[in-house]
Specification:
Length: about 300
Amino acid sequence: MPRLEKRRLQQLRGSSYVLTLPKDWVEEMGLGKGSSVLLLSDPGVFCVVPSDRGGGFAVEIDTRDVGGEEGVEEAVRLFYTLGAVSMRIKSPGASYRLLPRIRRLRAELHGVMATVLNEDEVQVSFSGELFTSLEEGVRSFLVSLATAARAAASYAVTGDKEAVMSEVSECLLQARALSRYVSWMISRPSRDLIIQATPLAGVLSARLIDLCASLEEALKQGISREDAETFASLVSELAESVDKGYEDAGRVWRRVVEKAAATPRDRSAAHQLLRSLAHASEALKHLALMRLLPVR
């Protein structure tokens, strides 16, 4: 749990100020005299991060506290998204039963590894990130989503549902990896957004996960080839706008909103899919606007 405490600044000779770190935190991070830390600052915010960790953290859970084996899967998804680097899962006498469940998550979560420590514990670790910047992650996801939509459009002709669902799974993997990247942004020295914009990035990553769910639901309900192609075209436009700034993001957002409004509600799959895309494109537009207005 986050801890809050008040400390006073001390001034050394000259102009330097000193702030002591809590002993419990230093020991919990495995630090000591001579250890290196990263100092991250934005207007009104100052963070101290162990230099060799980049914001990751470890988690310990017990299957009895999360509702059994099914709850473990949900916990792994959650802590992966929040930026954990590893999890130790206690499952008295049943650790081997957890492995198949966790390994199935590799289709959803990038770089998941699970090993049995003993008959009572499983160690789960998550590898590094897929992306080097928020823009790269968003663009990569949108390109993948457009590919999935085009696969959905061709499904009426080919009947290859497995290929379509494989593309949707790839979208979900990238969306969750992007959420993980956003979780790390607040505690990394190379982040590409000011700290105040991190909540907007979190909203965007959540909207992209929603888009995956909407596309999957549209496939279940049945979406026409024309609607799938329209969706794919709009997603491609949005992907191209990622690096171009607020005006381009706003233009694509308006086009998506107009298309959603013009789509009859009786074509519910297409209507809901375009509404989800409108929410995602609006979040991207807001993030682009934030870049134009640096906080001082």
